[in-house]
Automatic annotation (TrEMBL):
PANTHER family xref list: HTH-TYPE TRANSCRIPTIONAL REGULATORY PROTEIN GABR (PTHR46577:SF1)
Gene3D superfamilies: Type I PLP-dependent aspartate aminotransferase-like (Major domain), Winged helix-like DNA-binding domain superfamily/Winged helix DNA-binding domain
Species in which this protein is naturally found: Sporolactobacillus shoreae
Family named by the database record: In the C-terminal section; belongs to the class-I pyridoxal-phosphate-dependent aminotransferase family.
Highest rank taxon of the organism: Bacteria
Residues covered by the HTH gntR-type domain: 1-69
Keyword list, A-Z: Aminotransferase, DNA-binding, Pyridoxal phosphate, Transcription, Transcription regulation, Transferase
InterPro entries: Aminotransferase_I/II_large, HTH_trans_reg/aminotransferase, PyrdxlP-dep_Trfase, PyrdxlP-dep_Trfase_major, Tscrpt_reg_HTH_GntR, WH-like_DNA-bd_sf, WH_DNA-bd_sf
Pfam families linked: Aminotran_1_2, GntR
CDD domains assigned: AAT_like (cd00609), WHTH_GntR (cd07377)
Name of this chain's protein: PLP-dependent aminotransferase family protein
Length: 443
């Protein structure tokens, strides 16, 4: 073992044994040099190596601190919130991202404090170009724009496509992300709907809509659908892309939970589009830091000038400091380690939720728990009011989102497991009892 490795082992051992508490300063260079009988240059080299490996971060003229990747588990809240789509607070890497901000400012200096191109920070777009290519999205960095979250990306896509709202309609799934309907309404865009159920989208119905109506764009969530949690089959995605190409319908693909996908066989819709008709949108909020408000959109060359113009009119450019920090987080490998941790946590929650719901013995009741993702979908018997169930659950401090769809033929509850502590998932038993009581009362 070299002397530098000896220093590294001493510090890592201290972290493992909790002698060096996460988020606090480690012993200084002179102290460690004296303890291990090595020179200060060797200690400094070890500090730098551990910083590059993201075990430590440096505060200028303040020494080295242990990177804190998580926090103590928060006390249980009285309210169990299955409604809010936000990461578990214990999974948010506050300290590590602070380190990333410091490093990016040091590396890029004044560049982060001036106006950037409306497309976004060039270094981050280059990093994302390589990262997206691994996921089957092949585009140049000039076809990519950084946005203030996925929601701004969707809004920019709608404004770009529907410069004249009366020229065509927006097709959306039923049910769908509610904010898209609000955006369309604010922009005076007419909407048509197509049913999305456990089997996906009926391709013959989709073609009939394309033939019968003036559909200009199709907003679709192929993977980890909001609110149902369903994902489309690969062949269906391929056929949808072919139909959109045949009828020249632009696709707005909302892939907001792409980083929760560990199955490389599950590809984005963009991968199957051979006609350059897809605006692909991605978020870093749901799996990372909600407050960072960063998303990315990939667009066809034909729409480039209009997209840039709409972005410039919206806010000129997205925060360069946040973009620089995210670029460091991605290139350093810290983001991938964080995502593995998030995926493991959410998978445990999904397994537990499925085990609880599988014991439900209710006629007309069904549920969907995906292998990955954030949303559980519970379909209720038609005679039971989702509004009444939601109200009764609220009285027991359980918050859920309720949906009616398909002309009220099907109604359901959307449960988001992201911010609910694993031990609080036992409240699903309470939910089932409420549904049973309501069904018994109606009968």
């Amino acid at each position: 073992m070299s002397k530098m490795e000896l220093v590294k082992e001493y510090i890592l051992g201290g972290i493992k044994q909790k002698r060096f508490v996460e988020g606090q300063k480690v012993p200084g260079c002179r102290e460690i040099a004296k303890i291990l009988s090595v020179n200060k240059i060797t200690v400094n080299k070890a500090f730098k190596a551990l910083e590059e490996e993201h075990f430590l971060y440096c505060v200028p003229r303040g020494g080295y601190y242990v990177v804190k990747s998580d926090f103590e588990e928060a006390p249980l809240s009285k309210t169990i919130d299955f409604q809010t789509v936000a990461p578990d607070p214990t999974l948010i890497p506050y300290q590590a991202f602070t380190h990333a901000i410091n490093q990016s400012i040091e590396e890029y200096k004044k560049k982060l404090f001036s106006y950037e191109s409306p497309l976004g920070f060039a270094e981050l777009r280059k990093t994302l170009q390589e990262r997206l290519a691994r996921d089957g999205i092949y585009a140049s960095s000039s076809q990519m724009m950084l946005t203030n979250g996925a929601q701004q990306g969707i809004f920019l896509a709608l404004k770009t496509i529907f410069t004249v709202p009366s020229e065509g309609k927006l097709l959306v799934e039923s049910p769908t992300y509610h904010a898209v309907l609000d955006m369309a309404k604010s922009l005076n865009i007419d909407c048509s709907t197509i049913r999305r159920d456990p089997t996906g989208i009926k391709l013959n119905e989709l073609e009939h809509v394309f033939q019968a109506e003036r559909i200009k764009a199709f907003y679709i969530i192929p993977r980890y659908h909001n609110p149902t949690g369903y994902s489309l089959l690969e062949n269906d995605k391929k056929m949808i892309a072919e139909l959109c190409g045949r009828y020249h319908v632009l696709m707005i693909e909302d892939d907001y939970l792409a980083d929760l996908g560990m199955d490389k066989r599950c590809l984005p819709l963009h991968y199957y589009d051979t006609n350059q008709l897809t605006i692909y949108i991605r978020s870093f909020s749901k799996t990372f830091l909600p407050g960072i408000r960063l998303g990315a959109m990939v667009f066809p060359d034909a729409l480039r000038d209009t997209v840039i113009q709409q972005k410039y009119l919206s806010d000129i450019c997205t925060s360069s400091i946040a973009q620089g920090a995210l670029n460091f987080f991605l290139t350093s490998g810290m983001y991938d380690r964080h995502i593995r941790k998030v995926n493991a946590c959410y998978r445990r929650k999904l397994v537990k939720a499925k085990a609880i719901l599988s014991h439900a013995d209710l006629t007309g009741f069904s549920f969907h728990v995906p292998r990955q993702g954030l949303f559980l979908w519970i379909t209720l018997p038609t005679e039971i009011s989702v509004e009444r169930i939601a109200e009764k659950l609220a009285q027991k401090n359980i918050r859920v989102s309720r949906y009616g769809m398909f002309n009220n033929e099907v109604q359901g509850l959307r449960l988001c497991i992201a911010g609910v502590p694993e031990k609080n998932l036992d409240s699903l038993e309470t939910m089932l009892n409420v549904i049973k009581e309501e069904k018994k009362f109606i009968n």
